[in-house]
Design a protein that fits this description.
- The complex is a heterodimer.
- By secondary structure, chain A is α/β, with parallel strands linked by helices.
- Chain A contains 15 helices and twelve strands.
- Chain A has two domains: about 150 residues, Aspartate Aminotransferase, domain 1; about 240 residues, 3-Layer(aba) Sandwich (Aspartate Aminotransferase, domain 2), CATH 3.40.640.
- In chain A, strand 3, helix 5 and strand 4 form a beta-alpha-beta unit.
- In chain A, helix 1 runs antiparallel to helix 10, helix 4 packs parallel to helix 5 and helix 11 crosses helix 14.
- The N terminus of chain A is likely disordered.
- Classes of the chains: A alpha/beta, B alpha+beta.
Chain lengths: ~400, ~140
């Protein structure tokens, strides 16, 4: 995206490469939402005309979400986003099935919405196994099979990792669980709109998604729950969502999510092709211009738009600050941006040493990006790396050791 | 998230570089925490004639290194020893709470470089004041 005059020294050009964090709401999605703020504002639970219109709009959106996932509309529950969907799936199954078992299996690289929920359940007396991943961030379905016991209630494995973009073997893992009679949940927040997500083909029992990752609005998401799966409610109150999720519906948000998922599904193949080409151009360009760079995540089994790199001997936040000076928005797994002092748990789980994890950069491409955006990064990044390496005691030590040899 | 001063010292670091055959040198921090600072001193008489730094770390780590070196340059070793992490943070117009450990590292770097100079000259290393911010922070990320 170019804002203002990109030719001036002040460089107002903005290149947004953080689509894994959030995407802009598409204009046609905003248009579809607009009437549901002040004109068609009725509460879907009421009985008069504008309320019935609202109810119909919610059901239309539910149908759009269901079709995109190849699910039934009565298997879609609307939530406030991916975090609520993850919390609900995991706590809901754990508490509803307490008499049957006390064991949950997940992975070391899940989003905090899953990991912190699991940690909370450990305090409530559940046992949680955190499956390790290989150097690419992939879970081994046979290792999953080894960890399942007759006390296991639920397995939760993400469809695609938000940091390194690795796609997990979901169908294989769900198959293992089905065979053993264990429920399977997947956090598909990063995957929907980028890769095929079909609940029947994958064989999952529950699936979380979030609208703002596929050009829908923030604050709305959904949980798919296969018919017959027992889970406790997370939110108690009114009888919305067939008595399973209380709270007046986020009407404009839900309408927006419906339009956004239909739109994303219609564009998905072309979107993935375009993003893969941009991502590969960026990766090739960076490795041609900068040495001591490593790719994080799987080389091919990864999200189309995701490029995660570690640039050795320097730290991620300082790279981001300098990239921002050139209008480039990206992200890092360095501790320095997380508020804690440990780097990303995902980068540590794939075996990166701390200093390499601190030097990670994540570029996630999206609809608005062009080859010219990629080229802007390719012009901007090498001098930034050079500048920070010139300052780095790690690089100085490395250079000395090279000269000695 | 950062003050203008922090951004200025990050974008235009003062005293960045290396001193050949320094009179005192110290490396503090560790890769686990994501910050490493190396401080080089050139001492004439009892005065810090020149000081340089190399830093691996975030914007605050670079800015605190830059500010700390600027604050001790030209000072006597006694005066430089009194540099506190708070003074570095204040001179930068404040740091976000999660970044205060960077200023602690800068203070520690100056102290260790001074003591390296003292030891090289057959002097007793100065002791950290009790309760000094980095007295027990050798290998932990908790500042």
């Amino acid at each position: 995206m170019i804002c203002g005059d990109s030719g001036t020294m002040s460089g107002t050009r903005r290149v947004y490469l953080d689509h894994a964090a959030t995407t802009p709401t598409a204009p046609e999605v905003v248009e579809a939402m607009r009437p549901y703020f002040s004109e068609r504002f009725g509460n879907p639970s009421s009985i008069y005309g504008i309320a019935r219109e609202s109810k119909a709009a919610v059901e239309r959106a539910r149908g759009q979400v269901a079709r995109a996932l190849n699910a039934g509309p009565d298997e879609i529950y609307l939530t406030s986003g991916g975090t609520e969907a993850d919390n609900w799936a995991i706590k809901g199954v754990a508490f509803a099935n307490r008499k049957r078992g006390d064991h949950i299996i997940t992975t070391a690289i899940e989003h905090h919405a899953v990991l912190h929920t699991c940690r909370y359940l450990e305090h409530q007396g559940f046992r949680v196994t955190y499956l390790p991943v290989d150097a690419y961030g992939r879970v081994d379905p046979s290792k999953l099979a080894d960890e399942i016991t007759d006390r296991t209630l639920l397995v939760s494995i993400m469809t695609a990792n938000n940091e390194i973009g690795t796609l997990e073997p979901i169908a294989a893992c769900a198959g293992v669980c089905r065979e053993r009679g264990v429920l399977f949940h997947t956090d598909a927040v990063q995957a929907v709109g980028s890769v095929p997500v079909d609940v029947e083909a994958l064989g999952v029992d529950m699936l979380s998604l979030s609208a703002h990752k596929f050009y829908g609005p923030k604050g709305v998401g959904a949980l798919y729950v296969r018919k017959g799966v027992r889970l406790d409610n997370l939110l108690h109150g009114g009888a919305q969502e067939r008595g399973r999720r209380a709270g007046t519906e986020n009407l404009p948000g839900i309408v927006g999510m419906g339009v956004a998922i239909e739109r994303a599904e219609a564009r998905r193949e072309e979107y993935a092709r375009r993003l893969t080409a941009l991502r590969d151009r960026l990766y090739r360009g960076i490795t041609e211009r900068i040495d001591h760079v490593r790719l994080n995540g799987h080389p091919t089994e990864r999200l189309p738009g995701n490029l995660n790199l570690s640039i050795q001997f320097i730290e991620g936040e300082s790279m981001l600050l300098l990239l921002e000076q050139a209008g480039i928005c990206a992200s890092t797994g360095s501790a320095c941006t997380s508020g804690s002092l440990d780097p990303s748990h995902v980068l540590l789980a794939i075996g990166l040493p701390h200093e390499v994890a601190h030097g990670s950069l994540r570029f996630t491409h999206g609809e608005s990006n062009t080859e010219s955006d990629v080229d802007h990064v390719l012009e901007t990044l090498p001098p930034i790396v050079e500048r920070l390496r010139a300052m780095s005691p790690l690089y100085a030590t490395f250079r000395r050791s090279c000269n000695v040899q | 998230m950062y003050s203008e001063k922090v951004m200025d010292h990050f974008m235009n670091p003062r005293n960045q570089g290396e001193i050949e055959n320094p009179d005192g040198v110290a490396e503090v921090g560790n890769p686990k925490c994501g910050d490493i600072m190396k401080i080089f001193l050139r001492v004439k008489g009892d005065r810090i004639e020149d000081v340089k730094f190399q830093t691996f770390g975030c914007g605050a780590a670079v800015a605190t290194s830059s500010m700390a070196t600027e604050l001790v340059k030209g000072k006597t070793l006694d005066e430089a020893w009194d540099l506190s992490n708070k003074a570095v943070a204040e001179a930068l117009g404040g740091l976000p709470p999660v970044k205060m450990h960077c200023s602690v590292l800068a203070e520690e770097g100056i102290h260790k470089a001074i003591n390296d100079y003292r030891v090289r000259h057959g002097l007793e290393p100065w002791k950290e004041k009790p309760g000094a911010s980095h007295a027990h922070s050798d290998d932990t990320c908790e500042a």
